[in-house]
């Protein structure tokens, strides 16, 4: 089973990278960009029997830092 | 992949059966081989090559591996001295630094990849040169670099500078090797072709130096490090795509560096090197498995047989062609003593690295590759390496070159009535501005042995001793362009000077020879005459060349810049300080210290023809004129001035030393003031114009400060040793005092000095 | 007193830390590999050195915090054994939960290597008793991810409990309230971004880091 873990910064945590990209986009003439936040996408290929609890555990223990980050688990239906 | 039938003589027959259609003239051309070179391949093999073999020839006969345009001239460089343990030809040069220890170092270019992808290009450049050094048994102790960028207002340049600097830092910082010095120039000639030259210095025990000669028939050949992917299979990608069964996706052409793996590889290799298991070791550099295996067998005068099915691969379905041409990073090839495989494997497993026995040393003097039970390559080693093509490319005489380049003595020499104002402008200019924005992105302190950065040379302790190594990188490309011979001399002389200035004994140099297309006689003239000058300087200064790298075809018309780069033979110099308590630094130290100029005694006799505003930064920055001749270098003066400086440092008679280079005397004084916060009162020399005196870029000069003038004069009163030392003259310039220089406060000077990068990066 | 320096794959200041400990305590520390299941018995001091454990991949310190040896380090810290984490070691300490907060990318985006001024905020701790409160010291930093973050409540608690050990006295990396080093509630765990082990002798250009190690060893030998 393929699983995508989307890790993003919690609201309120300053994202200097996002700010720099925001600035760069404006520099390139793209107007109307309200905000840029940069996260991380992690693709896992796990056994079909992997439970949601186990995935949650992976995120909390390693893949995301709960002090500053949120995560979202997206399971992809395998062909 | 064409499968060949199995026959009893697997060494040649299946290859003979390769279909003629496989190698068309387009395929040959795509591999960068000329028709003449392809004829040479046919002659060497006595038959048509298959694609694997053609790929291997193309790599080994590339300019990068074969030095075919440069070899003839490189042979003329002096490479020997009593303290040289190993000169050019191995992964890096080795010099004796006493007490059973050696310094191992080399500089290498990663120009083109850095233009394509600055972060990864620069990072992998650092990774490659680190491997060259630890391959020989040394723990890397310092990194240095020499960077050339185009004009700052070029649309790509900020991105390139940011990427290159971040890449150098990203790699070096992570592996934990301090970056202690470097130089950076800006010039429009690099608009379309920046230069990224990286240097590493390591320290080893002289009885634990490892070489690349594969010996011992039957000894196992071991692959360690990262897996092989399809990285960097560029020039020949098209051909391989036509050829490979799985050509479904485009191959990545930029290698990605993995400094974490490199750090593990360093530790694992050094751990294995502490045992007696290794016969030979070679890093898989630019041409990967091909050049490492060919060089090892060639240097060992043996042969090599590899089983390509055993090569650790990152991707499925990789062909032998791809494996042999891959430029994946962080890989090494070793020959082990028989029976040591298990012990070695345990070390590499501990460091979580791949380890695979992939072949053996043979006595065939052939390189034989097998895949799926078939021989897919069988090439005699001679033609691949030692007998590779060598060209004597035509080049212009110096006279014709000077005429071609339009170099003539300066007419109409301007003067200045505002030295302070000119100085502020110079300090704020790209080529003289503070490099702090760059150097602060490099961890210069890791290892806790760094003694000096930001001065004339970087200095690191030899861990656990009182010795220290001084390191510098130098070249003034605008001089080399104006006069390749004098410019070649100047690059070596400036490295010599920078080492003397910190109190080090200059020992040897490495070089990175960056030039444009050698098939143009004027470019070849730059190369030949610069080498001639370098060689001469090395001989007079007793400063041999122990390693180096040549990078040709550095030109591009793509981005509106000049088509050829300035000739840039970058020099990396290494010197030894026996007791680092005597190390000298550049900042002014004490209020009241006397300031002297050390240089040519001949200056005492006025001569309006002397002083070199020609090709000076003052002339180009203040007057927008790029004119005149390069300053000549008097090597006898250089040698004696350097020795005099070292003697004064040793005798404890000086409190600060700084060499005089770009921007002349005024800029040298300003740098000493800015680094200390102290100002100075200095007086001009009435026999020269203010511009000539303060901004001329004459060579062979140092500024020193003297705390005790009586002791200093007593030393000078002892007289000179011989007529050569009598060439060295002293002139009192003034006194360290106050907080201003040329009517400008040191704070103002500092602000100007730091303004360029700050303004540019924040823009 | 036995001291130990933990080496993770990618640590690169482990030797520097060991040299500093030996120079100041007179005794070479034990070197412990991250894969070891347990710490040596009877340790009186544990140092987590700087570097790029696991290449700083995923997040600085994240994977090291999950390595086998860290279970033992957390346990030892719980029993009151002094633990010092410098740079990457600080990142490992926050990732492992021994210290609150997180270290994010520097506000200026770039790696920073330079000597910075720090103000000693707490001179009562095991690690800082040889300093004066309010004293300004100069210690090198070298990091890409040193921008300390914690929520306001946590920051207030840290300040209130005197757990801010060092504060930057000049702009550095965007850290909340300029925090450069913090203590745990028990006062036996210190994490800091600046490198005291790079400032223990005049040849380093300054020796303001010495007093930190001297504090630790003085307090331990008295205890």
Automatic annotation (TrEMBL), chain A:
It catalyses: N(2)-formyl-N(1)-(5-phospho-beta-D-ribosyl)glycinamide + L-glutamine + ATP + H2O = 2-formamido-N(1)-(5-O-phospho-beta-D-ribosyl)acetamidine + L-glutamate + ADP + phosphate + H(+). One of its GO terms (molecular function) is phosphoribosylformylglycinamidine synthase activity. Belongs to the PurS family. Pathway: Purine metabolism; IMP biosynthesis via de novo pathway; 5-amino-1-(5-phospho-D-ribosyl)imidazole from N(2)-formyl-N(1)-(5-phospho-D-ribosyl)glycinamide: step 1/2. This is Phosphoribosylformylglycinamidine synthase subunit PurS. Part of the FGAM synthase complex composed of 1 PurL, 1 PurQ and 2 PurS subunits. It is an enzyme of class 6 (ligase). The keyword Cytoplasm applies. Transmembrane segments: none annotated. HAMAP family: PurS (MF_01926). Keywords: ATP-binding, Cytoplasm, Ligase, Nucleotide-binding, Purine biosynthesis. Part of the phosphoribosylformylglycinamidine synthase complex involved in the purines biosynthetic pathway. Catalyzes the ATP-dependent conversion of formylglycinamide ribonucleotide (FGAR) and glutamine to yield formylglycinamidine ribonucleotide (FGAM) and glutamate. The FGAM synthase complex is composed of three subunits. PurQ produces an ammonia molecule by converting glutamine to glutamate. PurL transfers the ammonia molecule to FGAR to form FGAM in an ATP-dependent manner. The lineage of its organism: Bacteria, Pseudomonadati, Pseudomonadota, Alphaproteobacteria, Sphingomonadales. GO terms for biological process: 'de novo' IMP biosynthetic process.
Automatic annotation (TrEMBL), chain C:
It is found in: Cytoplasm. Pathway: Purine metabolism; IMP biosynthesis via de novo pathway; 5-amino-1-(5-phospho-D-ribosyl)imidazole from N(2)-formyl-N(1)-(5-phospho-D-ribosyl)glycinamide: step 1/2. Keywords: ATP-binding, Cytoplasm, Glutamine amidotransferase, Hydrolase, Ligase, Nucleotide-binding, Purine biosynthesis. Its EC number is 6.3.5.3, 3.5.1.2. One of its GO terms (biological process) is 'de novo' IMP biosynthetic process. The keyword Hydrolase applies. It comes from the Bacteria. It holds the Pfam family GATase_5. It catalyses: L-glutamine + H2O = L-glutamate + NH4(+); N(2)-formyl-N(1)-(5-phospho-beta-D-ribosyl)glycinamide + L-glutamine + ATP + H2O = 2-formamido-N(1)-(5-O-phospho-beta-D-ribosyl)acetamidine + L-glutamate + ADP + phosphate + H(+). Its main location: cytoplasm. Part of the phosphoribosylformylglycinamidine synthase complex involved in the purines biosynthetic pathway. Catalyzes the ATP-dependent conversion of formylglycinamide ribonucleotide (FGAR) and glutamine to yield formylglycinamidine ribonucleotide (FGAM) and glutamate. The FGAM synthase complex is composed of three subunits. PurQ produces an ammonia molecule by converting glutamine to glutamate. PurL transfers the ammonia molecule to FGAR to form FGAM in an ATP-dependent manner. This is Phosphoribosylformylglycinamidine synthase subunit PurQ. The gene is purQ.
């Amino acid at each position: 089973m393929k699983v995508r873990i989307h890790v993003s910064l919690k609201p309120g945590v300053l994202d200097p990278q996002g700010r720099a990209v925001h600035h760069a986009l404006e520099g390139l003439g793209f107007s109307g960009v309200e905000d840029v936040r940069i996260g991380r996408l992690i693709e896992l290929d796990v056994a079909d029997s992997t439970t949601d609890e186990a995935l949650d555990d992976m995120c909390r223990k390693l893949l995301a830092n709960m002090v500053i980050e949120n995560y979202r688990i997206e399971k992809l239906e395998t062909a | 992949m064409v499968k060949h039938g199995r026959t009893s003589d697997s060494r040649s027959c299946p290859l003979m059966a390769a279909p003629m259609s496989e190698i068309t003239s387009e395929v040959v051309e795509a591999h960068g081989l000329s028709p003449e070179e392809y004829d040479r391949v046919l002659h060497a093999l006595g038959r048509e090559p298959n694609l694997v073999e053609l790929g291997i020839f193309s790599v080994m006969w590339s300019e990068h591996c074969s030095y075919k345009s440069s070899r003839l001239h490189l042979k003329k460089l002096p490479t020997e001295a009593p303290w040289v343990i190993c000169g050019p030809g191995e992964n890096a040069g080795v010099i004796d630094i006493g007490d059973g220890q050696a310094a191992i170092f080399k500089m290498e270019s990663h120009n083109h990849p850095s233009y394509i992808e600055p972060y990864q290009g620069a990072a992998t450049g650092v990774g490659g040169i680190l491997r060259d050094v630890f391959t020989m048994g040394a723990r890397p102790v310092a990194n240095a670099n020499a960077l050339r960028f185009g004009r700052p207002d070029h649309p790509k340049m900020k991105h390139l500078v940011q990427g290159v600097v971040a890449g150098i830092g990203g790699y070096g910082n992570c592996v934990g090797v301090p970056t202690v010095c470097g130089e950076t120039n800006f010039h429009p000639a690099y608009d379309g072709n920046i230069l990224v030259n990286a240097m590493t210095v390591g320290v080893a025990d002289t009885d634990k130096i490892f070489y690349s000669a594969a010996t011992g028939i039957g000894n196992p050949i071991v692959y360690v490090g990262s897996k092989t992917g399809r990285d960097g299979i560029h020039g020949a990608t098209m051909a391989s795509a036509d050829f490979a069964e799985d050509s479904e996706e485009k191959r990545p052409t930029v290698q990605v560096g993995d400094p974490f793996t490199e750090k593990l590889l360093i530790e694992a290799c050094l751990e294995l090197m502490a045992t007696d298991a290794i016969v030979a070791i070679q890093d898989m550099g630019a041409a990967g498995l091909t050049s490492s295996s060919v060089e090892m067998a060639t240097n060992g005068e043996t042969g090599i047989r590899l089983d390509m099915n055993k090569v650790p691969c990152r991707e499925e379905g990789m062909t032998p062609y791809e494996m042999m041409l891959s430029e994946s990073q962080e890989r090494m090839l070793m020959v082990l003593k028989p029976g040591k495989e298990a012990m070695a494997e345990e070390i590499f497993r501990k460091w979580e690295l791949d380890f695979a026995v992939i072949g053996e040393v043979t006595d065939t003097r052939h390189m034989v590759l097998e895949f799926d039970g078939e021989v897919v390559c069988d090439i005699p080693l001679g033609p691949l390496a030692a007998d590779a093509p060598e060209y004597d490319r035509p080049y212009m005489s110096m006279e014709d070159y000077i005429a071609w380049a339009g170099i003539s003595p300066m007419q109409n020499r301007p003067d200045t009535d505002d030295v302070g104002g000119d100085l502020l402008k110079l300090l704020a200019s790209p080529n003289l501005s503070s490099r702090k924005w760059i150097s602060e992105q490099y961890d210069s302190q890791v290892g806790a042995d760094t003694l000096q950065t930001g001065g004339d040379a970087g200095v690191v302790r030899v861990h656990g001793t009182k010795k220290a190594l001084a390191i510098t990188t130098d070249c003034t490309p605008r001089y080399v362009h104006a006069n390749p011979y004098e410019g070649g001399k100047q690059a070596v002389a400036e490295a010599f000077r920078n080492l003397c200035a910190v109190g080090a004994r200059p020992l040897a140099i490495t070089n990175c020879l960056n030039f444009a297309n050698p098939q143009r006689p004027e470019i070849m003239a730059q190369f030949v005459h610069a080498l001639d000058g370098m060689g001469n300087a090395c001989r007079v200064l007793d400063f041999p060349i122990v390693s180096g790298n040549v990078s040709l075809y550095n030109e591009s018309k793509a981005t509106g810049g000049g088509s050829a780069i300035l000739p840039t033979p970058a020099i990396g110099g290494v010197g030894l300080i026996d007791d680092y308590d005597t190390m000298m630094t550049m900042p002014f130290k004490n209020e009241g210290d006397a300031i002297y100029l050390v240089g040519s005694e001949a200056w005492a006799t006025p001569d309006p023809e002397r002083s070199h505003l020609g090709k000076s930064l003052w002339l180009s920055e203040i007057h927008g004129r790029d004119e005149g001749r390069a300053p000549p270098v008097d090597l006898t003066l250089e040698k004696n001035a350097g020795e005099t400086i070292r003697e004064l440092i040793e005798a404890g008679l000086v409190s600060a030393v700084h060499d005089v280079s770009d921007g002349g005397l005024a800029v040298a004084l300003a740098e000493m003031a800015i680094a200390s916060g102290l100002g100075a009162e200095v007086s001009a020399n009435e026999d020269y114009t203010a511009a000539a005196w303060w901004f001329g870029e004459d060579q062979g000069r140092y500024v020193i400060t003297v705390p005790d003038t009586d002791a200093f004069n007593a030393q000078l009163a002892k007289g000179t040793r011989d007529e050569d030392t009598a060439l060295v003259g002293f002139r009192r310039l003034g006194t360290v005092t106050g907080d201003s220089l040329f009517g400008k406060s040191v704070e103002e000077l500092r602000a100007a000095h730091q303004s360029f990068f700050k303004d540019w990066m924040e823009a | 007193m036995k001291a130990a320096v933990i080496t993770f794959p990618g640590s690169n200041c482990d030797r520097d830390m060991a040299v500093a400990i030996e120079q100041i305590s007179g005794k070479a520390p034990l070197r412990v590999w991250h894969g070891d299941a347990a710490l040596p018995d009877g340790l009186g001091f544990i140092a987590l050195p700087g570097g790029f454990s696991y290449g700083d991949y995923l997040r600085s310190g994240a994977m090291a915090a999950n390595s086998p040896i860290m279970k033992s380090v957390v346990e030892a810290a719980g029993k009151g054994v002094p633990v010092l984490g410098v740079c990457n070691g600080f990142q490992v300490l926050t990732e492992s939960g021994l210290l609150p907060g997180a270290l994010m990318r520097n506000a200026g985006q770039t790696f920073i290597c330079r000597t910075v001024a720090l103000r000693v905020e707490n001179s009562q701790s095991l690690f800082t008793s040889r300093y004066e409160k309010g004293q300004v010291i100069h210690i090198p930093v070298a990091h890409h991810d040193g921008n300390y973050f914690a929520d306001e409540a946590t920051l207030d608690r840290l300040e209130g409990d005197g757990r801010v050990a060092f504060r930057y006295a000049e702009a550095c990396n965007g850290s909340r309230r300029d925090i450069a080093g913090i203590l745990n509630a028990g006062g036996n765990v210190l994490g800091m971004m600046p490198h005291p082990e790079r400032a223990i002798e005049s040849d380093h250009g300054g020796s303001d880091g010495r007093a930190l190690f001297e504090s630790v060893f003085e307090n331990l030998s008295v205890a």
